[in-house]
Automatic annotation (TrEMBL):
Coiled coil: none annotated. This is SRPBCC family protein. Pfam families: Polyketide_cyc2 (PF10604). It comes from the Bacteria. InterPro entries: Polyketide_cyclase/dehydratase, START-like_dom_sf.
Length: 145
């Protein structure tokens, strides 16, 4: 992953519960800010998504894109952009670490590139906002189940 932004949060649930929410793409519009649609277009062996189509509307990014996913059990999931309109790159990962007390440290890494010119500082700020919003939404979703 090229220049990237990352952030972490602790979620009061075991890794399997956290990864189950991450893998439930059809529910993303209910908790992931800006996600209007999330549809699994290809499933990997084992039942988790291999490719997912998204419709996103979170200022300043409004796009439709497809991501390819690689799963490492309940430890990590990584993704890369297959195709998008405004997005030229969207590489990321959720890495989960079991704290041994029923909670999980979740680190979200993201590197994105858009077809419109953006100063690097603005791009990193946009990534940071996306990451922090996603982590807070994930925490709230997992802990409410």
């Amino acid at each position: 992953m090229a220049e990237q932004t990352s952030s972490s949060i602790t979620i009061d649930a075991p890794p399997a519960d956290v990864m189950a929410v991450i893998a439930d793409f059809e529910s993303y519009p209910a908790w992931a800010k800006g996600v209007k649609t999330a549809e699994v277009t290809a499933e990997a062996v084992g039942g988790r998504a291999e490719q997912v189509y998204f419709s996103l509307d979170v200022s300043p990014i409004k796009d439709e894109y497809t991501l390819a996913y690689v799963w490492d059990d309940d430890r990590e999931v990584t993704w890369t952009l297959v195709e998008g309109n405004m997005l030229k790159a969207l590489d990321g990962a959720y890495t989960l670490r079991d704290r041994g007390d029923g909670s999980t440290d979740v680190t979200y890494r993201l590197a994105l590139d858009v077809s419109i010119p953006l100063i690097g500082m603005l791009k990193r700020k946009g990534e940071k906002i996306l990451i922090d919003t996603a982590l807070k939404g994930l925490k709230k979703r997992v802990e409410s189940l």
